[in-house]
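Let us begin with a simple case.
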Amino acid sequence: MTTTHSTGSARQMWAGGLTVFGAVMLGITGLVGIFRGIMAIAEDDVFLTTANYVFEFDLTSWGWIHLILGIVAVVVSFGLYTAATWARVAGVGIAALVIIANFLSLPYYPAWSILMIAMSAVIIWALCTVRRDDTALH
């Protein structure tokens, strides 16, 4: 027999664990974004361009977008380890921006973009569900 308290507690445990997971993944995603941005700014031949895509940006512009998002994501990931409210709010914002940026990058890297969109959605859920006193690292 499951009570509301134990169901809520289990949900908070999942959210706490996923918040730590989100902090780690946001840090890794930020580092990858930084490297991806540097590669794009340097106009490396790693990126494939597709013709006639609706959201067409210069590769250097995409590089700066990913570089800035990456730096902010790394900073926010450190704040998530303490479950700071500012970091949770910023984490939701960064994850939403990561979803948008990866949606716009779908023609270039579809599998990676879909994976990042799904992970960001889970991170948003965790950051919106967890309470400050339920995180594993607090």
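The second case is a distinct protein. As before, the sequence precedes its structure tokens.
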Amino acid sequence: MADMFSTLGTWNWLIFGFILMALEVLAPGVFMFWLGLAALLVGLVSFAINPSWQTQLLMFAVFAAAAVPAWRHFARSASSSSASNPYLNKRTAALIGREFTLEKPIVDGTGTVRIDDTIWRVAGPDAPAGSRVRVVQADGASLTVAVA
């Protein structure tokens, strides 16, 4: 058994790292990736110096253990970037409070407004075309507006 470990070298670690990363592609779970990265790091360090097999295993254990806090840091920063845009996939909620110009007048409580490249149906008090309105409520594809 010690003979098997004593033959550990750079290529063994690099191949092991790529195998672990390939397993991550086949069965995603973000666990094998970090172990594969640790094995690749051991392989790269083994290029520069030629450590004993005990040192290589110790480096792998340290790199693998350090990968967990690194993963948590990256996962936390990725989730905070999605929190920076709370209206992602909630387009109508992002419109509340904004002001727009009526494209067609509001007659008998309904009219239209152009927002970017989309024409939205609006409900609110009667107002002529060209009036500024503020979105106060969003319900599906219909917006409730008030005269701004």
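The first strand starts at residue 99 and ends at 107. Residues 53-83 form the longest helix (31 residues).
Keep these points in mind for the review questions at the end of the chapter.
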